[in-house]
UniProtKB/TrEMBL annotation:
The gene is nad1. It comes from the Eukaryota. This is NADH-ubiquinone oxidoreductase chain 1. Core subunit of the mitochondrial membrane respiratory chain NADH dehydrogenase (Complex I) that is believed to belong to the minimal assembly required for catalysis. Complex I functions in the transfer of electrons from NADH to the respiratory chain. The immediate electron acceptor for the enzyme is believed to be ubiquinone. It comes from Harpactocrates apennicola. It is a multi-pass membrane protein. PROSITE patterns: COMPLEX1_ND1_2. Pfam families: NADHdh.
């Protein structure tokens, strides 16, 4: 229990300062300073933002479902938290299980329902359109995402994530599958609805997308859930491709993945939605399927 509590506290602090890092990186990309007034160099800005958001008066749409508006952001936040105890920080997990890869599949699939309900319960056209875009995008790329995870489990002969560490003691998988890594990064960006695939929050079209009717603490919970998913993807990428996050090279690798999410947002314009869907169904999914069939045939024949 103490390990779980310490992990969650560290995670919330990392999310807070990850938002500050994003604002700093985007500001320097855009030739400006970013947050620099609160405390020393703006280091306390995340806590100032959190106090401001959670002190705001909650406003409810007159035609929305008030009960779901209160409940669903917390559910989304809890789903993001539940996935962390099954992630191995070394060769052991906090909640170790022989099938924690499959548990991760199940919990991450439930995130689709939380976004669907967030967009529906406000009874707003903008939020409903944003949630429909997000669901179509997440379901499409979840297929590719899970098939790539299945490919890793075929390589490792185990559904237990902590066993991946022993495989990588002999070889880092990253050096042999660089093209697959690029597809994985592309899929991760689409899975967490990050730029250039942030169609669920298309400000120029949908005001703010599926969370347009949420303010104050409810918006903060949705916001925390999104950034927690980004950090989780960085951890997963490091675990699947290097086996551990405890070595210096693995920590550098994980930080590089986390920074790439922010750098890509400040560099690339928003993609076209139809091209995004075609890229998955016509290019990435056939390639992933072919790789899985080849890998399984090779292992089966040997």
């Amino acid at each position: 229990m103490i390990n779980i509590i310490l992990t969650l506290i560290s995670l919330l602090l990392s999310v807070a300062f990850y938002t500050l890092l994003e604002r700093k990186i985007l500001s320097y990309i855009q030739m400006r300073k970013g947050p620099n007034k609160v405390s020393i160099m703006g280091i306390m800005q995340p806590f100032s933002d959190a106090i401001k958001l959670f002190n705001k008066t909650l406003t409810m749409p007159s035609v929305g479902n008030s009960l779901l508006i209160f409940i669903i952001p917390s559910v989304s936040f809890m789903l993001s938290l539940i996935m962390w105890p099954i992630i191995p920080f070394s060769q052991f997990c906090i909640l170790d299980n022989s099938y924690n890869s499959l548990i991760f599949f199940v919990i991450s699939s439930l995130m689709v329902y939380s976004i669907l309900t967030i967009g529906w319960c406000a009874n707003s056209k903008f939020s409903q359109l944003g949630s429909m875009r997000a669901i179509a995008q997440m379901i499409s790329y979840e297929i590719n995402f899970f098939m790539m995870l299945l490919m890793f489990t075929i390589f490792f002969h185990s559904y237990k994530m902590s066993q991946f560490y022993f495989f990588h003691m002999k070889m880092w998988l990253f050096f042999g599958i660089l093209p697959i890594f690029m597809m994985w990064l592309f899929t991760c960006l689409a899975e967490v609805n990050r730029s250039p695939f942030d169609f669920a929050e298309g400000e120029s079209e949908l005001v703010s997308g599926f969370n347009v009717e949420f303010a104050g603490g409810l918006f903060a919970l949705i916001f925390l859930s999104e950034y927690m998913s980004m950090i989780l993807m960085s951890f997963l990428t490091t675990i699947f491709l290097t086996g551990s996050i405890m070595t210096l090279l693995s920590i550098f690798y994980m930080n590089s993945i986390a920074l790439s999410f922010l750098w890509i947002r400040g560099t690339f314009p928003r993609f076209r939605y139809d091209l995004l869907m075609k890229t998955n169904w016509k290019i990435m999914l056939p390639i992933t399927t072919l790789i899985i069939i080849t890998a399984y045939s090779f292992i089966f024949l040997n």
